[in-house]
Amino acid sequence: MTDREFMARALELAERGRGRTSPNPVVGAVVVKDARIVGEGFHERCGGAHAEVNALRQAGKQALGATMFVTLEPCCTWGKTPPCTDAVVAAGVSRVVVAHRDPNPEVSGRGIAELERRGVSVEEGLLAAEAAAANEPYLKFRATGLPLVTLKLAVSLDGRVTAPAGGRWVTCDESRGLVHGMRGGADCVAVGVGTVLADDPLLTDRRPGAVRQPARLVLDTRLRTPALSRLAAGARATRTIVACAEGAPASARRTLEELGVEVWTVRAGDGGVDLAAVMGRVAAEGMTAVLCEGGPTVASALVRAALVDRVAFFVAPSLAGAAETAALGDLGPEWKGGASRLEDVRWTAVGCDVLLEARVRRAGRS
Question: How many CB atoms lie within 10 A of CB 270?
């Protein structure tokens, strides 16, 4: 195997921690001796051992004189765990290949410098773009203090979100299964109260074997979320948050809180709660990846507020007609000719549907 293949393996390992490490990054590590992998590890959960330590534990004495491939710069400071640089040096690793530098100002460049100061050879940049993509939520959080927001919509060919007559779903079973996986990789799933009132969703990852659920967030200016909704009823089992504006009925707040719902009060914004304030609170609570499954009102407001980073549109082979509900409303003057504002576009066949994934390009962002 080549260095590139070893780093690719470390990136594969990093994905095993997806959805469980926030606000920390996902990280994978591989220890190689005599061109053979002798230890593997990944960061399994926030507060747990880091990828480097897990890989070194598996490698044991074989780490002496070995090379470590790690997807993010090893930490050099005490947090919830000791510095990884100390573990690397103590194990006798002679060379470390780092894919991407950690943007954490307490670590950035210092972890590499500390290893080099203590006699470890360090190389940086192998599969850097792939490592950055894997940690896009973490990188955005470090740069802006906000979470990465993915807007997911299920639409007909003519851009409507209304299901065909007699059906509940716009898209096929395979698409809905994929959405469950997207929830599993997110820290928080957000919807507007209109979706709660219309669909009474669960917003959980219901794949077989799912052991961890994202938080559920309802954007609900006047606290109209029903106490009998499935979200409220399951609030003690799965973290459930309702964000309202000042002046929302105190009685509704008490009712929801008695059921275990967290109620956040934020200032009013674009026709509802201030979405930037909500997302700032989400990030402050340690959630760096948000999947928005809201309807047209919430989706359009998030786009207008420049809070959407990525889109995931499931397009079904059906026509709904102009009388049905459009997926998006007014996006504001900045979005005239908005198709050109999506980049890194990828189309994927999912059952009978097509999934469009893309990054939102904004002025000043490469």
Answer: 14
Q: Are residues 225 and 242 in contact, defined by beta-carbon separation less than 8 angstroms?
A: yes
CA distance linking residue 22 with residue 216, whole number of Å: 16
Dump strand ranges (E) for 1-91.
28-33, 36-42, 67-72
pLDDT tens readout for residues 151-185: 999 999 998 887 665 567 889 999 999 999 999 99
pLDDT, tens only, 99-148: 999 999 999 999 999 999 999 999 999 999 999 999 999 999 999 999 99
What one-letter code names the amino acid at 234? G
Q: 318-358, pLDDT tens digit by residue?
A: 888 877 888 888 887 777 666 558 899 999 999 999 999 99
Task: Report the interhelical angle of 84-91 vs 51-59 (nearest 10°).
Answer: 20
- Please give the C-alpha separations between residue 349 and each of 175, 330, 356, in angstroms, as whole numbers: 9, 29, 9
Q: How far apart are CA 334 and CA 332, in angstroms?
A: 6
Q: Give dist(CA 312, CA 308) in Å, integer.
A: 11
Indicate which residues carry an active-site annotation: 52
Query: Residue written as tokens 């009132």?
Result: 197
Count CA atoms closer than 13 A to 97's CA, side-chain side. 23
Burial class (CB in 10 A: 0-12, 13-18, 19+), 176: middle
What are the distances in angstroms from CA 155 to CA 183, 253, 317, 321, 346?
18, 34, 9, 12, 17
pTM assigned to the model: 0.91
Cα–Cα dist 260/236, whole Å:
5
